[in-house]
Structure formats: C-alpha cells, structure tokens
Amino acid sequence: MPSDRLFGPSLSTDKMSAAVSDDAWLMAMLRFESALAAVQARLGLIPEEAGAAIGAASKRGPFDVTSIGRQAAESASPVVPLVAALQHAVGKKHAPFVHHAATSQDTLDTAMMLVARDGLDLLLDGLDTLAATCSSLARTHRATPMAARTLMQVALPTTFGYKAALWLEGVMDARRRLAALRQNGLAVQLGGPVGTFDRHDVVVELAAELGLTAPELPWHSVRSRVVELGSAMAMAAGAASKISLDVILLAQSEVAEVAPGKPGGSSSMKHKRNPAQAVETRAAFALAAANAGVLLAAMPGEHERSAGAWQSEWPALTELFRVTAGAVDRTAELLADLHIDTARMKANLGPVTGGHGVDAAAALADRAVEMYTEEMSHDR
C-alpha cells in the first residue's frame, strides 16, 4: 500500500519505505561496526572486552539519525559522525578500537548490501504476487480472442491470455535477475583506507557474521555490482510499467477492452475512470530509470575513491528500491481488480483473421504458465 505523504513517497510502499529509510541505513552501518569488532576480537586483533563493548553500544545507542545526517555534510559521509558517536558511547578505554582498520567506504558499502538484502526480499515477494496474478490471467483467458496490435494498429488475432503470459515472462525474467543477486551478488566490503587491507581471513569471517558473500578483492573502486543491482531493479520496474502501459492503452475510451477496478477520479470531469495505479507505475518507472542512470554514471570514479560519484550512489539506490517496489505493487493491485470485457475484445477484432490464430496463442499461453509453475515449484 502507498505511503500517505504528498509527493514521491506515494510511489512506494510502506514496507519498502521503512526498509530503506535513514533509520534502516543507520542500523545497517551499526551492524557493520558491531560485526567488525566481534570478528576482530575473535581473531585477537582488538581486545575481547572492546569487541563486547562496541557490540553492546551498537545495539544500545542512542544514536540521533537527524544529528548524524546534519553532521555528515562536514565530511561528505555519515560514517564520520557515526563513528564519533559510537566512540563516545563506548568510552575512552574502548574508543580507539571502534572502526579499527576500516574506512568510511567499508561501512557504507557493506551497509548498502545489508539494506539491499532486505529490500530485495520485499521486491521478490512483490514480484511473486505480480507473477501469480499474470499467470492466473493467462490461464483464465488462454483462449479469449482479441486483436494483437503492432505500431498501435490492429494486426492479427491473439488472445488476452497470451498477452498476460508475455507479461508474466517479463516479470519472471526480472525476478530471476534479482534472485541471483540476492543469492550471490551482495558482498561485504573491507578494504581499509585505500583498499589494501590484506587480511582475507577477516573478510571471510565478517561476511559470515553478516550473511554476505566474501569477495576475493575489495571492490571499493569497481562499482559494477552496484550498477548491476540498480539495472536489475530498473528492469523489474520496466516489466511492471510495460503491463501498466498496455492496460492504459486497452482502457482508452475508444478501445474499452479493460477497465481498472479501482479507477481514479478527475477534479473537473466526473465521468472519467482514470487508470491511476497504472499512471503511478509509469511515473515510478521513470524515476527508476533515472536513478539507474545515476549509478551507471558513478562507475568511472577517480582513482581509489571518487569525489562525488560514490556519494551519489546512496540516495540513488535508496530511491530505486522505493520506486521499483511502488511500480510492482501498483501493477499487482491493478491486475487483481481489472475488469476484462471479452465481448468488446471480440468486437474490436472484427473480421480480422490470419496468422497462426487463437489456438496457437492459447497453446503458447499454456506453455508459459507451465514454465512458470515448474520454475516456482523448484524455487520453493
């Protein structure tokens, strides 16, 4: 369901907004600091007493996210004020061991992966719901005849079930990419000030502590995993937007083959039944594409740590999670209540014949549903 704020956040969901909030980022950074101290204490790199104190302070707080955010402008990083607050919390005796051998990018990149993991879990749930709805439509309307349209013109016969089956394949393709990243693409970062930290045993232990993968080398100046994550989310938003655009076109007054079950109103034309959910999906996709571009533009950072490009990743990735969740959620809601006028579909097809016909489209819809069912049964 959408957030109740006026602009922007309404294109997300409450759960995703919480999962990628400033508080969520702060907790992820503290999880890194706590896990790092625990690993270092276990390996004898810092005193056990210090490791325990840092872990306790990370959980106990309090940490003022607003104050830390304001202070972040002074160093272009929220980690500097966060580490200072954590040092204050543990006291002078243990303060020197806070953030030991790490740098701000280690904390933020690892926090990014932790936030991404929670966000991906929500996105995958949303895509599962959308895929199930597409599959149901494909099955129910496997042989419902309608006009296929190419270049916005009536072309040859197809079925509404086959159209839904192709929506399904787009959603599942996006899901596969995001599931693979959730499984293997979220890596811990621990490179130290310039990426030359060479204690791989610490990296492996830290990854295990946080449930992330352990990279062979630090990825502080190789941002491909962030770009891949952003691109996969933009593709998921795009798959949802494709569905919503088709619904918008099919719901036009002159076509009227479908209608939104929960239409939006007009401030001046009371007769209108606007496909508001589909409109929001398209707006969300536009923002997803723009923020994926920000991540791509950040790839060629200067030397060992970029001056500005890296800092642009945090808000861009946060926004990507928000709007992708919104796109997927709105489209699932749209399809769940969609009114389908099969008589109008047949009437709009008129005397058009040719191609491989309705039977072939129905068989392809069946095949798509079969593939989906088999894939999901394996995943479970």
Explain this structure.
The chain is mainly alpha-helical and 380 residues long. The chain has a domain at 102-199 and 216-379: Up-down Bundle (Fumarase C, Chain A, domain 2). The protein has helices spanning 14-19, 22-42, 48-60, 65-72, 79-90, 104-140, 160-184, 200-210, 224-250, 276-297, 309-336, 342-349, 357-379; strands at 145-150, 153-159, 258-259, 339-340. A two-stranded antiparallel sheet has the order 1-2. It has a two-stranded antiparallel sheet with strand order 3-4. The chain is elongated. The mean pLDDT is 94.
Nutshell version of this structure?
The chain has 380 residues and is mainly α. The protein has helices at 14-19, 22-42, 48-60, 65-72, 79-90, 104-140, 160-184, 200-210, 224-250, 276-297, 309-336, 342-349, 357-379; strands spanning 145-150, 153-159, 258-259, 339-340.
Radius of gyration: 25 Å
Number-wise, the strands total 4
Mean pLDDT: 94
Helix content: 55-70%
Shape: elongated
Tell me, what is the CATH class of the domain at 102-199 and 216-379? Mainly Alpha
Helix/strand order, N-terminal first? HHHHHHEEHHHEHHEHH
Largest beta-sheet details? 2 strands, antiparallel
Count of DSSP-assigned helices: 13
**Order of strands in the sheet with most strands:** 1-2
- CATH third-tier fold name of the domain at 102-199 and 216-379: Fumarase C, Chain A, domain 2
User: What's the CATH architecture name of the domain at 102-199 and 216-379?
Assistant: Up-down Bundle
Strand proportion: under 5%
Low-pLDDT parts are none
Q: What is the distance, rounded to the nearest whole angstrom, between the alpha carbons of the first and last residues?
A: 26 Å
CATH superfamily of the domain at 102-199 and 216-379: Fumarase/aspartase (Central domain)
Structural class: mainly alpha
